[in-house]
Write a structure and sequence with these properties.
Elements: E1 3-17, H1 19-25, E2 35-42, E3 45-51, H2 59-67, E4 70-79, E5 94-98, E6 101-108, H3 114-117, H4 132-145, H5 156-171, E7 177-181, E8 185-190, E9 193-194, E10 200-201, E11 206-211, E12 224-227, E13 234-239, E14 249-250, E15 255-260, E16 263-265
Antiparallel strand pairs: 1-4, 1-12, 1-13, 2-3, 2-4, 5-6, 6-7, 7-8, 8-15, 9-10, 11-13, 11-14, 15-16
Length: 267
Amino acid sequence: MCELFCFSSRLPTVATITLQRFAERGGLNRRTVDGWGLALFDGRDLRLYREPEPARDSAWIDFIQSRRIATCLLISHIRHATRGAITLANTQPFVREIAGRMHCFAHNGRLESIELRHAGESDRFQPIGDTDSEFASCVLFERIARLWSRREAPALADRFEIVARFAAEMRKIGPANFLYSDGSTLFAHGDRRTQPDGTIAPPGLWRLRRACAVDLDSLAEAGVHLEIGAEPQELTVLASVPLTEEDWQPLQEGEVVVVQAGTLVTP
């Protein structure tokens, strides 16, 4: 299974991720890391870094860390290929423009026969690669784009309804943990994943809320470094597995959570 990580914060946060160590925390220490990707939102746009190679061999990681880019929303994906060639086109996250802003999607799981079940549904958005995850992203982008007739964000309840319905459909055909964001709002869906005992079961995502002064070193063992200033901060972190000994909360099977500016919100 692949590994997901993201955070949403009230104030811009500098994040550096040692992706190989993070992958090992998720159980990929004995398995091939077949690619990695980072999306750092910057207003309506985002900085996207992707490579179809193990992160340990990448000079891009040092470059990204040296830039010290602050963001309020970051989505990361580490790939263990189960379908599709090891190519850039098949490397997540997947992004598309909708209504003058970038939208981002990352998925963990396997969606059997999704192309047959949802054939012809996506018109504007077409896969570039050949993974089930990208096909799923195009289906969601197609549906969500119908709400974005203007540059202003549609009602949160309407967006949530589309995401929740999409998540329910995906769960019927396979594990469907995913992260989706339009740059201001983060939607996270928890399902099932391969557990340490080899079973496929929930939870597939975990979340952690932090506020104000925090122990920045506690995430370092998992390869994640967050630099938070002196001002009061709100931060929500989601990951495929708990990264620290803190009070991580599992997402229930089928649960969709919504985060804005580091805080969980009710649609």
